Amino acid sequence: MSLSFLVPLTSRYAPLSKLHFGHGRGAARSVNCILSRRPAITILAIFLHPIFRPQSLSFSSTAIARGGSSRSVAPENLIVLGIETSCDDTAAAVVTGNGKILSQIVSSQADLLSRYGGVAPKMAEEAHSLVIDQVVQQALDNSSLTGEDLSAVAVTIGPGLSLCLRVGVTKARSIAGRFNLPFIGVHHMEAHTLVARLVERDLQFPFLALLISGGHNLLILARDVGHYVQLGTTIDDAIGEAYDKTARWLGLDISKGGGPALEELAHEGDSNSVKFKIPMRQYKDCNFSYAGLKTQVRLAIESRHVCVDNNPILSASSHERKSRADIAASFQRVAVLHLEERCQRAIEWAKEMEPSIKCLVVSGGVASNQYVRSRLNYVVERNGISLVCPPPNLCTDNGVMVAWTGIEHFILGRFDPPPPAFDPEDYMCDLRPRWPLGEEYLHGKSEARSLKRARMHPSLTSIIQSSIKQQI
Length: 472
Ligand code: KG4
Ligand code: ZN
Known about the structure:
This protein is an alpha/beta fold. The protein contains 12 helices and 16 strands.
């Protein structure tokens, strides 16, 4: 039974809501998705029936009309190209609907990062532009596929640096336009979350997720694909930023990333030797802060006269190396204790909201840290739930998570029609540099929470939920 009809879209955020919804139930049911191409689209093809549960994953097949001819694709046979350029990694991957990774390419800018001490947007954009064609081509070649074989193209559209996001989005649009493929704009942090469902195919909603990266610290309750409640976020810096700065100040070789370098040095140190204060203990919420810990580290380095400016760790005396390792280990202990305390509270909150919760997903670059994993394992064990941590190469930024998130939304019928073969010169990419994943849990709002809400996009969850409500 086809459930298709067209409805006009009145949202103020037209490009945000260019979501196509398909909902279905029963293994034999198929849904016809008609991809209509219109200039300045404000019309949606909506496939919806109120009796069907909105985010059900129950399609038996998705019929995609491409270039006039319609062909039916079972979800497991979908093949999606995912592209990621939101920060300092240029990544692409090809993934199938049953979770098989056909290829995965990542080109890192870690060397730029170590030279300039942070991501400089203009330089990062240039670095992405330099390698994007090669990275995407390599991903296609390694999968032995061409654009003709793809079912859709997914790309990170936010949050992240606009200049960098634009490189990936432009590339994705050009491929989708050229091969007449549906286009899926992906939320970077949702991609970090949902990749856990590729790794752990039995992982069911609802679950709790801790997302820890260079730019984000998030605790979320994941209710469904596109439906998240934000229990906590950082009020200043993310943990990855604190790892990176500490590694730099300690004179470590950060050409392969500050986090891994610091984790390695910490093995040599005494984690109780420097008494750092655990952040935000006076706030009984799930928010994070790492700016103060960074300052404490800086002061410890200065007071111990660990002069690192012209003294990389390789040329340090053994005494000095030990002193730096002590700082590294002590920093790591407290940085992770802060995560442990917030996770403990978040589990309690989440169990009140969703007593059926069984898993804590930990993802994002910092989740590749073994110490972080082992400490959080104690926390989940104490609470009778389990830890799901993707392998390290799927925790750091990658194209697989974007392709997979594209697949999760595509199966639900949420995608844009193929873009034109060539965008007009004045085409404005739909980029969302500041884009929350979900609405804040009211109980979780902190007095300490900074109100940096200017130029913030409506959250992914609010866009999807209001689109669903509009149609019912
Ligand atoms: O998710 P990600 O690759 O990029 C962002 O979205 O930010 O995370 C990058 C962050 C960096 O700060 C990096 O130093 C940190 O993850 N990271 C680590 C480790 N591996 C990567 N931090 C601690 N220990 C690690 N082993
Ligand atoms: Zn990331």
